[in-house]
């Protein structure tokens, strides 16, 4: 354990990477998942079908296989995302996004966006039919029905399933360990290789994960309480 | 539910035209994407027969079949273990004794929050390597999946028992049954019926997570795939074939879950455990979010 305490900055940086992946992939999956959900419930049949096919395919693929596609298979057809590195050197300077980080974020977002889509869709589906009918009956326009009646309720109903999706994403960032990212799981492997006190090292890393998960669920609980309304 | 009724009216003539335009644009985009992928594959020589040949060569097909069997065995053992684990701790969480309830709660919440891969790495490096190794990588995967899925199933069991109407337990107590009898003879049998679809869809999760064994070189589909692309340098083709196998097996499992839901459970909506740490989620929207 001394080894871990003496190199604690490595642990902090590894969890920083975990959180960084979580934030980057979380934002990207929301950005992809919301339009996907819109396509999935929209009026255009082809879009509905296309989105449904994408969601079914990716949801049933193990995340590890998505990683293999992005990290191992894409370079075979000359897609390495190396251009991202060279572009930044003169653009940002300080914040450096490596091709590894980008690929891991891409794989995580491709996977998670399908679950975001399903969570949002279930939120929209949970709004009782009568609500929209009543809104139309009192003469609200389509825009009014959506913004005043359907979406506010759908948004509230989306928080709990979206939270479980984001928590799963937080845990799924560990898969990046197998593809060249030194995040928490890879760092634990590094310490496990050097010590005999595997159990203590594992407990330390596991408890930090538990803490991070608690932070996410506490944040969602705050949102849910704030948005709670009598139904 | 038919969402189209909620969100929009029947389209008028203008909207119909607009939808047609969207339809055509979507189809064009999709066709363009597929063409671009095919061209890209072709330009890099990835459509060459030699790279696909292993998947029609009997020895390699047999190796992949063996990998699939290993994967299924791992997933199956893990689910059996997870059912026992979930039953013990799910019932433990509902116990009236604080000394039982609290440890069960801690165990369930801990294993739900720890990534499966972290668990596998720990088991492998602590007990699977070196002279005094007691676990093969196969068992590291099975144990890690057992405790994770067990913790999730514990919540499913709890939700299932709570979903049995209260009058059932009250009636059982009224005819003089003891606590254990009420649980074993009245509540659990009815709860299992409600839980079946959730349990089957948890099998999909377990099956998908067996792929993580790749990191600790456990047997299974991903391991066979790694060997094949190590030999032929056909990463793209292996990724496509192995993924297709996973998707097909998972779709079969999902179809079984839907069938069971229709045949045995009836029209009641599927159970979903509350998301981690959320206790007052009474929105009823947790279903459909999907477990990951």
Automatic annotation (TrEMBL), chain A:
First-listed, main subcellular location of the protein, grouped into a coarse class: membrane
Membrane topology of the entry: Multi-pass membrane protein
Gene3D superfamilies cross-referenced by the UniProt entry: MetI-like
UniProtKB keywords: Amino-acid transport, Cell membrane, Membrane, Transmembrane, Transmembrane helix, Transport
Molecular-function GO term, any one: transmembrane transporter activity
Protein source organism: Nocardioides guangzhouensis
GO biological process: amino acid transport
NCBIfam families linked to this entry: HEQRo_perm_3TM
UniProt protein name: Amino acid ABC transporter permease
Similarity field: Belongs to the binding-protein-dependent transport system permease family. HisMQ subfamily.
Automatic annotation (TrEMBL), chain B:
One Gene Ontology molecular-function label: transmembrane transporter activity
Cellular compartments per GO CC: ATP-binding cassette (ABC) transporter complex
Subcellular location: Cell membrane
The entry's keywords: Cell membrane, Membrane, Transmembrane, Transmembrane helix, Transport
TM segment ranges: 21-41, 74-92, 104-127, 133-157, 194-216, 236-260
Record domain ABC transmembrane type-1: where: 68-257
SUPFAM superfamilies assigned: MetI-like
Main location: membrane
Biological processes per GO annotation: amino acid transport
Topological category with respect to the lipid bilayer: Multi-pass membrane protein
InterPro entries: AA_ABC_transptr_permease_3TM, ArtM/GltK/GlnP/TcyL/YhdX-like, MetI-like, MetI-like_sf
Family: Belongs to the binding-protein-dependent transport system permease family.
Protein known as: Amino acid ABC transporter permease
Organism: Nocardioides guangzhouensis
Species lineage: Bacteria, Bacillati, Actinomycetota, Actinomycetes, Propionibacteriales
């Amino acid at each position: 354990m001394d080894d871990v305490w003496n190199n604690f900055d490595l642990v902090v940086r590894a969890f920083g990477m975990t959180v960084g992946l979580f934030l980057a992939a979380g934002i990207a999956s929301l950005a992809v998942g919301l339009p996907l959900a819109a396509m999935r419930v929209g009026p255009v049949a082809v879009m509905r079908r296309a989105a449904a096919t994408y969601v079914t395919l990716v949801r049933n693929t193990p995340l590890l296989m998505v990683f293999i596609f992005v990290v191992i298979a894409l370079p075979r057809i000359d897609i390495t995302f190396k251009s991202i590195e060279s572009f930044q050197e003169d653009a940002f300077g300080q914040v450096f996004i490596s091709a590894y980080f980008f690929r891991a974020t891409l794989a995580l977002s491709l996977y998670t966006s399908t679950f975001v889509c399903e969570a949002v869709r279930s939120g929209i589906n949970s709004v009782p039919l009568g609500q929209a009918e009543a809104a139309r009956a009192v003469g609200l326009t389509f825009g009014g029905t959506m913004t005043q009646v359907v979406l506010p309720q759908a948004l509230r109903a989306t928080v709990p399933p979206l939270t479980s999706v984001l928590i799963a994403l937080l845990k799924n960032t560990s898969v990046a360990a197998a593809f060249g990212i030194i995040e928490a799981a890879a760092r634990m492997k590094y310490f496990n290789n050097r010590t005999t006190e595997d159990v203590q090292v594992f407990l330390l890393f596991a408890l930090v994960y538990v803490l991070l998960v608690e932070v996410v669920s506490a944040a969602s609980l705050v949102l849910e309480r704030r948005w709670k309304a009598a139904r | 539910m038919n969402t189209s009724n909620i969100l929009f009216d029947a389209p008028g003539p203008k909207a119909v035209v607009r939808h047609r335009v969207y339809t055509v644009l979507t189809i064009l985009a999709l066709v363009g994407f597929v063409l671009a992928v095919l061209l890209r594959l072709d330009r890099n020589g990835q459509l060459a027969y030699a790279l696909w040949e292993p998947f029609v060569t009997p020895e390699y097909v047999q190796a992949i079949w063996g990998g699939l069997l290993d994967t299924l065995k791992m997933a199956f053992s893990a689910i059996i273990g997870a059912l026992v684990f979930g039953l013990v701790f799910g019932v433990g969480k509902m116990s009236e004794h604080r000394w039982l309830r609290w440890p069960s709660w801690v165990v369930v919440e801990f294993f739900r929050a720890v990534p499966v891969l972290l668990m596998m790495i720990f088991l492998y490096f602590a007990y699977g390597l070196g002279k005094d190794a007691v676990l093969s990588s196969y068992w590291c995967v099975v144990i890690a999946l057992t405790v994770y899925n067990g913790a999730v199933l514990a919540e499913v069991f709890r939700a299932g028992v709570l979903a049995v109407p209260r009058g059932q337990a009250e009636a059982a107590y009224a005819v003089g049954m003891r606590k254990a009898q009420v649980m074993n003879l009245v509540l659990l049998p009815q709860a299992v019926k409600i839980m079946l679809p959730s349990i089957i869809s948890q099998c999909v999760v377990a099956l998908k997570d067996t792929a993580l064994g790749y990191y600790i070189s456990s047997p299974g589909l991903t391991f066979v795939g790694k060997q094949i692309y190590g030999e032929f340098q056909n990463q793209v083709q292996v990724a496509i074939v192995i993924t297709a196998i996973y998707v097909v097996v998972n779709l079969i499992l999902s179809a079984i879950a839907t069938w069971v839901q229709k045949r045995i459970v009836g029209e009641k909506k599927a159970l979903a455990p509350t998301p981690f740490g959320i206790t007052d989620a009474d929105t009823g929207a947790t279903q459909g979010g999907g477990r990951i």
